[in-house]
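Board notes (copied after class):
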Amino acid sequence: MYKNSILAKSVRFALISGAAATAAITAPVAFAAEESAEVERISVTGSRIKRTDMEGSNPVTTIDAAAIEKMSVNNVGDLLKSLTSSAGAATNTQTNNGGDSSTRFSLRGMGSERTLVLINGRRVVAGGSGANSSVDLNTIPTAIVKRVEILKDGASATYGSDAIAGVVNIITKDDFEGFELKLNYGGSDKGDAVTKGVDVTFGAASDRGNVVVALGYSDQGDAFMGDRSFSEYELRAYEDGMTEQGGSSAPPWVNANTPDGRVTRGPEYGNWRDYSGATDSYNYNPVNYLQTPSKRRYASVFANYTLGEFGFLGEVNSFAEASYVQTTGNRRLAPEPLAPLIFFGSAAPYSPNNYYNQTMGPKDANGNAYVIDDWRRRMIETGGRANERDYKTFRTAVGFNGALDNGWDWEVSYVWGQSDSVETAAGYFNLDRVAEAVGPSGWLDANGNLIVDGNGDAVVDANGSQLVCLDANGGAIDGCVPLNIFGTPGSADEVSPEMLQYISGDYNTTETGQNKQEVLTALISGDLFDLPAGSVGFAAGWEQRKESGSYTPDSLILQGITTAGSAVGTSGGYDVQELFGELIVPILADAPMAHMLDFEAAVRYSDYSTFGTNTSGKLGVKWMPIESLMVRATLSEAFRAPTTSDLYGGASVGFPEATDPCDGNFYTDAEYTAVKASSNWANCTGTGVPTTGYDSGGVEQIPSNGGGSDNWVGTTDLTPETAEVLTVGFVYNPDFIDNFSMSVDYWKIELENAISTVGTQTRLDGCFNTGTYCETITRFGETSAAAGGIITVDNYTVNVGGINTAGIDYDLRYTFESGFGDWGLGLDGTYLLQYDKILADGSIIDHVGRYEVNHDGMFAKLKTNFTVNWTIADFDTSLITRYITSVVETEAGWWTDPFERDVDSNIIVDFQTNYTVSEHLMLTAGVNNLFDETPPFVYSAPGANTDVSTYDVIGRTIYLRAGVKF
């Protein structure tokens, strides 16, 4: 067995007590006895072999309970998102439009679906709205966490699919004794984003086992974009540094495209005049959430019990884990932009024989009302679009473990998890009823008869008792209330409650979803035989896993008759059988320039019901030329199998930002003339663009069909994405500096055959430039009022392109004593050297030092955290400084040619102090974003004029916490 060593102790200090990338430094922990004593074997993230030393060939960052205490977070997702190794555009509760009240973690910016999440080394069911591809980290409260280990290495040979970027392993409290109560309350200094919660943990132990029960409740309050200066308006940027307020082309004051031009009443609600996108757009920001509200209730039980001796199985221990989490959250968007034809592809021409069009609508030179095919109106009378979500997640793990007579460890476990979701949406519209309500209208007299003229035609502007909608035959439509979009909100001629009731009131939608997981695992590990340098460690096992998921929209969404969108249900699953093995071979020990030299290898064979087999391998080396220096390296193969969502996700419509190269709105007259004269124009007309061209009027969100590969109707089969992962680094604890340690690791990931989508913009550009993807673009026909406009772009899941990324992680820790308390300093960071995304057409998008709105979010060149911890008497104080370097973004829109601009760097300082009142009571006070630093402007980011996935948008927040323990 391995013996404890000076380096083992020092590396434990580096990797366990100090390497929490976002947390304060804790005191060194004594894990072992004297050097000559044998120590307990433990599991280390990244290996199935139990070992006596914490350090392996894999780079692992550990955040322990003491470090978690120094952060104002109540779930693992918020804990991880400020790690320097995070990047990209993972969603969190600051994500309103496009968010789902979940928090996910994207290690290396590879995507949350490529970061495997475990609890106590075992898989966790995916969470969200159904058929999801990753774990919702909001469902894992920090109150139950003993430590979090982040393996920043490919680990498919050890854990299977999804561990491409790495692994997050959450180790829970399974040995707690006593009672602990934590109360917390906080909020921004602007009076919003109030958070409050209570956590109760109690445990009991005997000489044969232990049980821990944790209960809790948390409530996160909202904040609105309109309450922060940087997000109060949507801003459009120009190359000269100027900005102007932007917004939507569907304003409350109406945008109507008439045969004589596009007109509006303007924000002044005056007479009809020409519409200008620069001055007449609607600012939708103020009523959008900047932080979405959510509530969480949870209950968890962890237990283990020694059953006794069972023959050759040795002493058998049983264990069980059970957790239930309910999360409710809301999303609020600005009121629906009702533009049936252009935004939703549903014809709803405003009739010239509609009473409101005749009396209040725009008129031609002869005073006649127009037929308005393209009309746009923000329906602010609804109060906004509200989505309410209710997620319930249940997970249990049970099993037995022990040690055989020969000392080999064994374990058999079963994991079952299920997450269920219900989402309701209000504030949307029935498009069929909208078309009826803006059609021709007439009046009924006191006797309920239609008032007609001498020809029997309905009199539009009559002195009747009731205004009604008319069908194509001139008959009244039962229950229909004509819609007036031309009035002034807040006045007598606004959209009335009766009008809203007919087109919206009974059309709230409900969607349900589910994820299920079952995992049965058997493994054994121990020492095979002895070599001169030590024992050869091994592990082997078998695993069977079943994954399934479903998403069920209601009939309104299935039929696509509401502006809430259209979607097809999802249902499917798969199962996999796997065999795996692992070896650690000691080559040298206590030799010149080889205090220790170990070789590691792992392999996993997987047989999937969906695509077939896959084999992943890993090689590693750990070399200690001297006792104070460890050099480590790994080379591994990783893979991600297609998920239920990737395979069977039903078709649904989304609205990504993109520009159509065939759309005259984005060119000057001279530029558009040149485009129509170019050879590319044939690709436009071939998809249905009129030879004279078309103008969308500023449509920048293109309706796009997304969903699983099954939507390609058998023409596309998904296969696993694969990656090669290399890490090389060292851990150093010099003898000449007491209590100092450092680690530096180089990493490189090459991902191929990525499971993704081509992208709406890439499909539009590919069709225009080379004629590829044209068959996936559907346009309005030549007889439509929106001829040439895009109805939808098919953008279903495929294997396409890849990612090549590399960088350097570093971590330096130093503690010292002084006459004025004990001090700890820590500096850790990630320097990004490469992030190339390879698109379907072979082009490469360089992400390093950039924010890419259509290509995965934020990829700062350097992210670093600096920690100062000071302990004196009964006070423990920490100061954490988080730094993100500046990046470059590309701003583009109908108002400007594309140009690049610098996004400012960002520095956030968090402060916290703990006061130990007694052995039973601790009080905590803290301030996040101490200097109220506003996030840098990122104008190309959707929503708040900044990147809500990366930066703190709430500002200075103050919190208090009390902890009682017995």
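Comment from the instructor: The mean pLDDT is 90. Residues 6-17 form the longest helix (12 residues).
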